[in-house]
Amino acid sequence: MDPILLVFTICLYILSMVVSLLLGMTAKRLTGSSIRFPAAVHFTLLFLAISFLFILKTGPIGNYLLLLAVCTGTALSGWALRNEWIRKPLRFYLIAWLLLIPVFLWSPSRIFYAISGNYAHFKPEQQFNLQSNYYLVEQQSMLQEQKITKYKVIRKFGIYNKTLARDIDFGNRLVEVKLIELRDDTLILEGLRADQTLHRIGIRPGMKKNTITKKPSA
Q1: I need a surface site. Which of 5, 20, 77, 85 has the fewest CB within 10 A?
Q2: Cα–Cα distance, 183 to 172 (Å, whole number)
């Protein structure tokens, strides 16, 4: 994904969630009919996004318009939740944008790819369970296409992960992997590569390092 579009997407979507929360908190202080103009702006952006993406097929402009349409819809959802002036069909439509928030919390990258019009480039990461809550996971980058497949070993704690080892290169994409040994100072893996050859790797994982991070996108 283009770096500028990625940064713009992240900032704008987070801002839209904050605006949605603020509008939801202050909705009773606003006149119900005042939602008409921002709602009209939202539908205009949505119409233009669909036109540019599917009729005119001009990707970059359509992607930015789609992003603006999604973010304005998200921002208005909090207001619509407590606005009794608007009719139910429109109210339910705007409130439906709130459903994106749980998806965002579960998989941020999936949302960022989708609302920026780049979902066709989204590829779910490979994930292999080694034992218990230890996993071998494919490393991915939203900024650039990776020509070499690398993996990392993580330990899952709910929505949080502890990374034990990074940049593990088997020389090819894996079909399956088997854990040979796992101790505080030793990790040995044997992977079956896409070319049906076996490759064994031994590394020293950071078992005692406090490198717990929030779960990345799936």
Answers
A1: 85
A2: 25
